[in-house]
């Protein structure tokens, strides 16, 4: 009995140590799949202190605080009900579920474990209302993106300011700001993170919110198959970017709109950001119902509260980083 208790304590302590200090623990054994390094999800589950369940189409990991669901050969997963984009599709090898090494270390772990993040004490936040001036952004049947995102951004700034943060806005009026100077505001004002706020456009039937962070070096964007090897300024914060984007995407659930997921892209403001950055698409002006909502002050309040809440949640997580 005593031996079993000691053995169990040692195993639990080892798992906890690896979660808190992952850089000091050996990487999980990798295998090659589709010319990429993958790991077995069963090994990941053991390291995370989770149990794995699988079927012919799905695999899930679960413990008392987290639930992760994967579908084989699909580049999406859910973590605690929030949809996230993966860099490569999970799959099966000889009947065993596997996930890419980059997804485990760059996507899954940063979301689950603050100790995998670079430590930050967030003091100054840069909020970037998209477009402005002669750049209307997208348009709905009666409204323009530039006006809606400025209104939401001001509300976000007010919430963050009242929470004790210094907030810098890239624009606070109907002014055109070139893309290449927006991220530069981070360095000009010694900013600690950057969030760009936008509205979306597509077919009238499409609605929902989504958050983008920079695709890691050597991977493709969510809506592309082209892998890009160039290292961008923003790539130095890949893990923190992932957590920032996740916290915002999770918080936006209070809007009761459709969760379109945390995704990866190579937008200019994300590539050039020298601190953690995310770009939020708050909804679709091409959808009549969503356009009406996005022009409603009470709904803008809800969106702003969610974005600010996500930023504050990230700040708390980053303060516990290494």
Q: Report the C-alpha radius of gyration, rounded.
A: 20 Å
> Can you identify the CATH superfamily of the largest domain?
Zn-dependent exopeptidases
The oligomerization state is: single chain
The fraction of residues in strands falls at 15-25%
Count of discrete domains? 2
In the CATH hierarchy, the third-tier topology of the largest domain is known as Aminopeptidase
Number of helices: 10
Mean pLDDT: 93
CATH architecture of the largest domain: 3-Layer(aba) Sandwich
Largest sheet: 6 strands, mixed
Query: What is the topology, as strand order, of the major beta sheet?
Result: 11-10-12-15-13-14
Outline the low-pLDDT stretches.
1-24
**Which shape, going by the Cα principal axes?**
globular
Distance between the termini: 37 Å
Secondary-structure element order, N to C: HEEHEEEEEEEHEHEHHEEHEHEHH
């Amino acid at each position: 009995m005593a031996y079993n208790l000691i053995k169990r304590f040692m195993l639990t302590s080892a798992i906890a140590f690896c979660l808190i200090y992952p850089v000091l623990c050996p990487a999980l054994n990798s295998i090659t799949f589709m010319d990429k390094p993958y790991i077995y999800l069963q090994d990941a589950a053991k390291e995370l202190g989770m149990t794995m369940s699988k079927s012919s189409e799905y695999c899930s990991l679960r413990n008392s605080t987290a639930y992760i669901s994967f579908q084989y050969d699909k580049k999406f997963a859910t973590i605690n009900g929030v949809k996230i984009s993966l860099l490569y599709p999970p799959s099966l090898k000889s009947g065993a579920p596997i996930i890419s090494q980059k997804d485990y270390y760059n996507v899954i772990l940063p979301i689950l474990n603050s100790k995998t993040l670079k430590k930050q004490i967030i003091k100054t936040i840069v909020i970037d209302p998209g477009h402005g001036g002669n750049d209307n952004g997208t348009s709905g049947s009666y409204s323009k993106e530039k006006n809606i995102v400025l209104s939401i951004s001001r509300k976000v700034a007010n919430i963050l300011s009242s929470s004790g943060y210094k907030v810098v806005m890239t624009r606070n009026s109907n002014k055109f700001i070139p893309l290449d100077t927006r991220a530069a505001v981070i360095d000009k004002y010694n900013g600690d993170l950057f969030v760009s706020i936008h509205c979306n456009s597509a077919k009238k039937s499409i609605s929902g919110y989504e958050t983008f962070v920079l695709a890691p070096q050597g991977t493709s964007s969510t809506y592309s198959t082209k892998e890009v090897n160039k290292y961008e300024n923003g790539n130095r914060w890949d893990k923190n970017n992932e957590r920032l984007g996740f916290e915002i995407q999770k918080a936006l659930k209070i809007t009761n709109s459709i969760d379109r997921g945390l995704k990866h892209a190579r937008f200019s403001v994300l590539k050039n950001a020298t601190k953690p950055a995310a770009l939020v698409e708050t909804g679709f002006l091409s959808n009549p119902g969503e356009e009406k909502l996005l022009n409603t002050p009470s709904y803008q309040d809800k969106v702003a509260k969610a974005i600010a809440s996500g930023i504050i949640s990230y700040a708390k997580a980053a303060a516990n980083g290494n």
